[in-house]
Amino acid sequence: MNILIPDSWLREYLETKATPVEIMRYLSLSGPSVERIIDRQGEPVYDIEITTNRVDAFSVSGIAREAAVILPEYGFPAKLKPPSSFKTAVSPNLAPLSIQIKPDDQLINRIIAVEIRNIQNLKTPDWLKKRLEMVGQRSLNLLIDITNYVMWEVGHPLHIFDLDRMVKKKLIVRKANKREKFTTLDNRTHFTNGGEIIFDDGAGEIIDLPGIMGTANTVVTNATKNALLFSENSDPALIRQAAMGLSIRTQAAAINEKHPDPHLAETAIQRALGFYVKLSGAQQASKIYDHFLSPKMAPEIILDHALVEQYLGKKLPPSKIISVLTALEFKVKLRKNNQAIRYQVIPPSFRNDISLPVDLVEEIARITGYQHIPAVLPGGNPSVSLADPLLQFESDLKHRLKGYGFTESYTYSMISREICRQYKLDTDRLYKITNIYSSAHVYLRPILIPSLLEVASSALSVRPDCELFELANIYQTRPGNLPEEKPWLALLMSGDRFRHLRGYVETLFSQIGISPKIFLPAKNNSIPLYYEANQALVLDQFGYCGFINNALLKFHGISVPIAVCELAPEKLLALKKSGPTYQVLPKYPSAYEDLALVIPDQVFVGPLIEKIRNFHPLIVGVELIDLHKQTKTIRIIYQAYDRNLSATDLRPIRESLLKNLKKTAGILLKTQVES
Amino acid sequence: MQKLLYLTDSYRKKLETEIQKIVRKGSVWHIFLKDTIIYPEGGGQPSDLGIINGKTGKARVLKAIFTSEGVLHECQVEGVIKAGDRVTIYLDWKRRYLNMRLHSAGHILHEAVATLFPQLVPVSANHSENNTLIRYRGEIPIGKAGEIERIANGIVDSNVSITSAFVTYDQLVQQASFVPVHLPKNKPLRIIQVQGFQPIPDGGTQVALTGETGLISIPKIVNHDGLVDVYYSIEKQTTAVIPDILEASPYSVSDLTAELIQIQTETIDQINNIDLPDFELRQKALGQTSRFSNLAKKIRDIPQKERSQAGIIINEVKNAIETALSHKFTRKHKSQGFFDPTLPGIKPKLGHLHIVSQAIEEITRTFERIGFTRVRHPEADWDYYAFEALNMPPNHPARDEWETFFLSYPGENKKDLTKKMVLTPHTSNGQVREMEKGIFPIKMINIAKCYRRQSDVSHASMFHQFEGLYIDKNVSIAHLKGVIEYFVKSFYGQDRQIRLRPFHFQFTEPSFEIDVTCGICHGQGVRADNEPCRLCKSGWLELGGAGMTHPNVLKAGHVDTSIYNGFAFGWGVERTYMMKSSTNLDDVRILYQNDIRFLEQF
Lengths: 675, 602
Hints:
The complex is a heterodimer of chains A (675) and B (602). By secondary structure, chain A is an alpha+beta fold.
């Protein structure tokens, strides 16, 4: 979370000659990151990112404290100074609070409150208004503006009630039940989820959502004369739960859910009281009520000097360690025991992020400067984990497809409800995002094709044709368990180019050393529904190949045929050969003959070629070289490794082949048909 | 193209044909005929003589010579003869037959010489009646004339056939005993063959049987200048029977070959010289009605036993025409006179790897060089691995840093809070999963898709991270810096600067953020047009977080923290790659819009 700190405000707490740019640079290198300096009405304002563990730095004074330690390390003297105080004389005869508070130590560590009366002025002075505007806070009225100002400065939220509107004179701390109704000061009505810390007026009405936002029924107004200034330090988990559950995000909640230092509550009350007295003309009208559950003693941390030097990769004198930690307000005792140097360290109350030795290492490392740590490549034993062959193979596949002229896409892993509907996917079996960000991204995709078709659709609006592929995970359902993330390859070619696509697939198979397959046409129920059932193949265990059905093409706004192929890389890998095997080169020439065969309809040529290929040992290759209507010209390549082949070798093979083809499939030579 | 019928039928004495062209040249006329039987002077054989009879006039052939337009008949003309006239040629057969006999005798003599002196190379010959001789390079010893005569007359006595045929150059090379160097490769070549000997190229007229030449005598053999002239003469009269070749000869392979080769030559000429669209040119050359196709049909006229041979020749001619076509098609532009080398090149179809694939490969390779191995861990994972094991218990405010997508799933028990599933917002879920393998040291790079509920110029709701994890003994921040510096310098080069800023992550302690100077504004924070850089804040780009692995994370991974510690870093692949100055992408979301025009750029 980011906080804006005006330079002049910072310098009320920090005495230094460092320029804003220098403050930005060095604070970033050793402390909170100053992302930029913004110009607000001519004054530099730091935009600083505060990490969630450093709620202590989420204020003007917190940043000043960091800067006072860091700047001297970079050669800029700096000193933390308290701001001019408004502390007013307090009459010893003040009465206790007129409101009866019933604390709950399980819920709130500390409650601190004080009454002020006779408020004269509700107009916020310009300087205060300007500061609030510079840090992005809207000025409302003086009473509220002061709470915001002090929160910004001190780092602890506080609240102000209209004392006269707390008619029941009671404030009972309790957990909310379910569905208790209340209206926050921004006039929104909420119902509790149960478990939130609330203040009850003793009659069951909620008069505050402490630590998060006040309620409309007790908030100060322009008519407020008397007020109850209030600060509490609650169980941060409950604050967070309530703020999240009710979706109320305020600065106060953001701080309170990170457990600010309860000691700061008192500082905040004192500071605010001073402002009220000075600016509104009111008087303190009660003793300060302070119910402080004895604060937990910060744990003592034992830090080994050796650990510091191990982490920093260099030597560091104990004096430096002690001076850094001391500057950061840690209590440090050096303990030497034989050779071992140790430190007993107690963090300050505002550093609840520090509990382990490595936390202290970080403090020492950042303040002494990461830029002073050497850069060394690790030595040690070699890693014993082996490269994942599937990852390597996937990369190999991608490169081959690129070589074939395909273009790779990277689409989102999520698909829309509409896609599921169009593809008839059972959404009950899908992994669904419960907090969707875009209606296009709702379910983890169990198939890759819809995404690729979306890419094709867009490509075809600017290109006459496209050849695409994507290799990405699909998410297969394992009820009650994580999805099976399965790497999946999909290829796509636009136009009536099934044979081309098949050609690429055949080439891919042969290049990775999987012997050529025929693959038979899909049976209706063996192929995903998005294929045109009678125009697709099941590629055994490897996947599918075929035309996308027309209804889906229409859905995707595509007006040309689309052939796709899906392959499971792991299945390919399982049968992949480690490399090509050397084939003895034949000493004798091969012979070939071309047969123009008239093949009846409904006879598949693929299996036929395979049959011819296996018909005789001398046949080493069969190619389809031409096709015209029913006539398919097939080239048969013969090869003997021990002799030249002559016509007398081939004739009997051919004759017996033709006889067989005629008998088994009614296939004739074209010349036989003509004569 | 003119048919030279004397080549296929040396015994034809009469021919009906047509005047192609007739031109007066002084006292003589130059006549070109559609076809001819008149042998023009050449190859050592003198020109034929004859009469050309038309309806309105008559031409006496004084001499015939070979020209580029065909056989030119130099004539005296009586009456009127004009182009287009139908005419009949009558050959001076007596003269021709003598010339034929002399010519064939020369071949017979040559076979005899070659039998005795195979090393001799024929150079030239004169087969006219006076000074009839064959000239060889080489030498014949004195006293061999009788021996040559005996062998030659043996061939004459045996009365064997002399046949002729048309072949391609390649066939000629295969068959002939001797191939003159100057033979054209694209013309029909005629060979003759004395039965029992190898064929020899020849363009003259020949008798059908060796006996027709009559006995050969060698009056002298003269060696001079490295050459040797073998003079010969033949009997004036012979008793041999002249076979009636005309009636005995059906349409033969040889005839077909001659015609085919002519057509081949003409067709190829046409292909090279006519400018037609590719398709029409092909139609004209090889289409159903092309001359080639018509001629190829004549295969039916060939005697059965010769048909397969004819088929081979038809195929060869077809292939030659095809080759010429494809050459024509490929050099079409070049052949049109003006050669324009500035025409844009014809580009190959290119494929493209997505820029993220390229980035992942480069990152993987870079880390492999220092011993980090790429691994794979789930993208959809239990909340435990994504958060809890990383020192972020449920409801921890640090979880807000990640705009995490939560998943509901089939078979989910909503009451079982330990079984909450998320789309990993980072690759750090791989850390504890890797530690759980229990193999040390760990040097992993986990690269995976990540998901967050956000979308702006520097964030897409899907992106990729690479997570480095090194767990070993005595690991220091210095090691982390070493690895990061190594990576940044390898990946970006020297012009980028880096800085480490303290940061906070629940799963590392100490933690930092790594910044690199922005590649779009080159660290300036403003673009060239002085607009603020849309990508970076103040010139620095956050590469990603890094830190020393938190003891609680090591414990979650069952790592003995008294022995091992380590570091981890997790950076965005896209962001990392985009920071390369050459990429200059200023909106990360375009990566996943998959506009083909974008994809094709990489």
